[in-house]
Amino acid sequence: MEFGVTSKGLDSAKDMIFPQGVYLNETQVQQDLYRKTHGNFQPGEQKTRDYNWKFDPNEHMFGYGE
Q1: Phi, psi angle pair for 4, to nearest 5°
Q2: Burial of 35 by CB count in 10 Å (0-12 exposed, 13-18 middle, 19+ buried)?
Q3: Which of 21, 48, 56, 57 reaches 20 to 30 Å from 8, CA-CA?
């Protein structure tokens, strides 16, 4: 579909922008780069920022007062 040219048939703009059933064969390096540059995480993927903490963030509770 080109700009200014009428489409033939019933093409949906939604299907053109967000195609269903199309998967890109990206390498892990490409996925990591796109995640870093665009903040594009997979559904349910935990966001990690690779901070250099002086403690174990898995054992520490933020905002917890004793």
Answers
A1: 85, 0
A2: middle
A3: 21
